Request: fold
Amino acid sequence: MVFEDRLTIDTPEGVPLELTLAGLGSRFASALLDYLFQAIILVALLVVLGYGAGIDPGASGVAAALWAVGFFVIFWGYDVAFEVLNSGRTPGKALNGLRVVRESGAPVTFGTSAVRNVIRIIDILPGTYLVGMVSIVVTGRNQRVGDLAAGTLVIREPRRLPPEVQVSPSVQAPAWDTSAIEPQELDAIAAFLARRGDLAAGARIQIAAELAGRLRPKVGGAIAREGDEMFLERLLAAKRGRL
Reply:
């Protein structure tokens, strides 16, 4: 069986939506990362509670109760909170380019996320996640039992490439320090330069000014008096020369 299956969903608007399903390997790697993050949080909580109980020996019972509550909240609430508030991505999933969505391709809700994570109690049996792994392998959409119950999928996020922009041959790549420029900012520059010809004159000037105004302070060696679009073209050339 191919674990990175593709799934096409017909949306209500009649536009086919193609999703790439995450396989067992990528999901396992994401789960390991998330368990590591949860363990760090639990250790920090244990240290705090242990320190408090050490100061007041009579507080040991309270500390144990708080530890039990904290363990439940972190074990169950961690995934639900990130999936609902971070568009279906826990930190582990985000690092591996994965996302939880509903079977329609729509974002998960609190209810669907809560169901899929409560059912994790079954998936984790017999303590080694065997039930969940077998379910992912044998189901047509790579779903563990929690996914089947909640009607959710784990997909790979599509890799979006910035538009290919041909910089004018007259634009030389300057020796600027562009290390502070983030990939998403480079994407924004490329998208603007690729579509600037379709923009109204006022919008084109305004967008170029906003981008240049935000990025100039982050570029070492940039000339302040240089035109906004020329600055963006030279910044793109400088950054690409170092990729």
